Amino acid sequence: MKAMLALAGQSAWNRRFVLVLVVLSIALSTFLLVGIERIRVDVRDNFATSVSGTDLIVGARTGAVQLMLYAVFHIGNASNNIRWRSVQALAQNRAVAWTIPISLGDSHRGFPVVATSQAYFERFRYGDQTALAFAQGRPFEKVFDAVLGAEVARRLGYKLGDRIVLSHGDGVLSTNDHADKPFTVVGVLQPTGTPVDRSVHIDLEGMEAIHIDWVAGAPLPGLTVPADQVGNYDLTPKNVTAVLVGLKSRAAVFSVQRWISEYDGEPLMAVLPGVALDELWDVVGIGERGLLAVSALVSLVSVAGLVAVIMTGLNERRRELAILRAVGAGPRQVLLLLAAEGVLLTICGVVLGALASIVATALLAGWVQTHFGIALHLRPPSTDEWLLLAGVLAGGSLASLVPGYRAYRLSLADGLSPRI
Amino acid sequence: MDTRSPDIPLLSLRDVTFRWPREQHDLIDIVEFELHPGEAVFVRGPSGCGKSTLLSLLAGVLTARSGQVRLLGQDWRDLSTAQRDRRRADHVGYIFQQFNLLPFLSVIDNVLLPIRFSAQRAAKAREASGAARASAEHLLEQLGLDARLWKRRAFELSVGQQQRVATARALIGSPEFVIADEPTSALDEALRASFMRLLLQARAAAGSALVFVSHDARLAEHFERHVDLPTLNRAGIPQAVAA
Predict the structure, then answer these.
(1) How far away is chain A from the Cα of B91, in angstroms, using its nearest Cα?
(2) pTM for the complete prediction?
(3) What ipTM score was computed for the predicted complex, to two decimals?
């Protein structure tokens, strides 16, 4: 057995240039399979950890998933706003412990602006009930104070005291800049691995202030209110986009949800973040399974390539098999030799692919975080990833029995005289 | 080395027939053949007369349809496949016509190949020279292969050098029985003569019996005993081959 395994290794090394291609093919398919699983898990983790400790997300009536996506992940747009009066009514509900109103819509150089209250820094939780913490500075206090998420500060190179200009909407048009009312960076948050990192946080009054001389999404012609005069106006927000709600007791979650849906001031809805996430996974799951199926097919093709390469070389190796038979190798050992070669190549490919996925995570995590807001975690393979790796290995090993069996049959038929 | 009496044959064939599956006629039909310990015999026969099939029967790779092929008193047919493989590894050395070596192994590793499959031959090689590797080197020296070539890959050697390495491989661990299947067919005349001299010297030193098969009648002069395979094999040459 040991002798045959050593020979399998030496024989494979002799044909290394062709076999390296096979190993690379298996490695790439393994990388794809594990990479997709890794991204799938990390995306889910990111979503799941982006909001914790929030019992309900309240917004204008829309889909549960859509409400959660724009309120927490700043993906998409709200169909309508909530009146400030409704927010106050909600805050006064006896079952409600705290509320975090959120107003969205503006941006700064591609990063969303989140207008909120001081409660955001005190009550918002992410991950395992972790509170927001400041890397530098403090929460906003004045109307034109801004607090940056870690990624915004890092990518744009901002520091405390820098002045930034917000843009109306997505900031595509420079005419939509609120250049007359710049904000001052007073704080930078520590990284959280959530959409908070990619957000610019301002006070709700600040959001109101920069739009004080705007109507219907455009500056009001002939009216300009300088920044130093906004204090003369009532800056209480008239509308917000959504409200994150914490309850005194989670047992009250359904009664509060019902109270909100029956609220007669305006049509509102409340969703449980976990339930909305489950709905999201139901939709996304189809795509995830599709991607995994495609990667599984790629792995299948790689394994088929492995079999094809070994089978193609088999005819040329019939003399090698005859020599081994002559020195005492049995047909079963010949089968073992060929199967061992396939298993060896599969192991090399799987290990290489798994290592590549870890290296790629280490190298690309920053880039992915910056461009997609997804925090990829450097971690050992999960149980599911081990299962996928074992699946590829088992598939490659089983497939290797095909050339092994062919060699077995040939060595029985050829004896010491291969008829080539 | 075999300690049996020279009167008791090392190898014996009695009423042996063989045919390939789905064939109607026998390819081998031999009434009697014997080979004694240390004896060398030249078996001559044209292409297609069953030389390679006979050698596979002698080595226990193929088994007879009827009759007995006994090596060291044991009929190959009485052994399981695994037992036959083990017995072949322990007692038989084989030299092929050409493409004799595993190209991915060095010269030394090719010579040591049978040792990987036979503890018995490994022990005999160690007994002879103190270590298996020393035994391989001794054989290569005996066969006139320059020490500078020993670490080279087999495919880097000339055909003549490869056949000498194959001979060393067949003789390492002094198997009782060596089979040479047209080992000189790829050599020119000058190389052929020197190869035959080295082969027979090394075989004599190892004390192995030898069955040397060739279609080249000129090689018969190196042997005291000659066998004409078409005469020995009553099955004759198949019509298709003869035509």
Answers:
(1) 10
(2) 0.69
(3) 0.79
